[in-house]
Amino acid sequence: MKLQGKVALVTGGGGGIGRATALAYQREGAKVAVADLNGEAAQAVAAEIEAAGGEAIAIAVDVTQSAQVEAMVKQVVTRFGRLDIAFNNAGIDIEHLPLHKATEEEFDKLVAVNIKGVWLCMKHEITQMLEQGSGGAIVNTSSVGGVIGAARQPVYGATKHAVLGLTRAAGVEYARKGIRVNAVCPGIIDTEMTERAIAREPKRAPYIEQAHPIGRLGQAEEIARAAVFLSSEDASFVVGHPLLVDGGMTA
Ligand code: NAI
User: Fold this and answer.
1) Which residue, of 78, 94, 187, 251, is most buried by count of CB atoms within 10 Å of its CB?
2) What's the CA gap between 24 and 152, in Å, rounded?
3) pLDDT, tens digit (0-9, with 9 covering 90-100), for 21-46
4) Mean per-residue pLDDT for 230-240?
């Protein structure tokens, strides 16, 4: 087990990539805090973890709200005594419009969840990790859209580029404190987010699969394995890195 005795926090843990990662962390021996805007979904994943013999708590949180994020970290520490690993994964995807047609409201929402949310989480998690003084590992969810230009997702893509900026800066800033900050950049993954995108534009479905040289969508578990790697001692010399897990999409 790669994460035996560690305490891990997963945001956006109620579904998709977050759920798969919360379950993978448990299988590797971590105690897991499952945080999500959808408190019931978080509760369901925490129950799955407990049913598998692990220890978990569910936390309802909106990652755009500083007080809630601070309270989330405190709740983890109250329950489990510390925080070693954080997967800052909560994110939204709402545009799918050409840049000149997207609205200011969409821009503000994307920036709030995808950038401010990740920054707020890191701010409070790192504060806790520094206080503990025993290092830690943070993994942020970026995207292939954080590495290449994505037509009809200009603001989403910009927010995911920003996640890599935050990741690199924090990686460099806290490396000497033993806190490793990295990012995972998924290709298109078979989750509800992708189902919603296909439902909005069914004609894009074949393109979405073919976008990956490997010839299929990714599975949430394939991202979870990358998050486990970056969170574990296997990645002890990996800092500020954007790990592409994209079936060759950006190759
Ligand atoms: P999903 O929509 O299935 O799950 C996202 C979870 O985040 C949901 O449970 C949702 O309730 C939660 N969430 C949304 N806003 C929140 C907020 N303000 N506070 C707390 N929780 C919030 O999405 P999926 O596919 O699992 O995506 C997870 C991450 O992976 C996102 O950051 C997304 O941008 C990224 N990603 C997804 C890809 C895909 O193809 N599905 C590709 C590349 C990146």
Assistant:
1) 187
2) 33
3) 999 999 999 999 999 999 999 999 99
4) 99
Distances (CA, A) of 189 to 121, 208, 219: 23, 10, 5
| Catalytic residue list contains 156 | yes
Report the C-alpha gap between 9 and 150 in whole angstroms: 29
Ligand 1 site, residue 50, Cβ cutoff 6 A? no
Index of the ligand 1 atom closest to the CA of residue 189: 40
Instruction: Identify whether the C-beta of residue 42 lies closer than 8 Å to the C-beta of residue 57.
Output: no
Q: Hey, which residues does 33 pair with through a beta bridge? A: 9, 57
Does 34 reside within a domain? Answer: yes
Q: Is residue 250 part of a domain?
A: no
Question: Which residue, 161, 70, 180, is CA-closest to 114?
Answer: 161
Instruction: Please state the domain count of the chain.
Output: 1
Residue 193 Cα to ligand 1 middle (Å): 7
Q: Are 148 and 161 in contact (CB under 8 A)?
A: no
Largest CA distance in the chain: 52
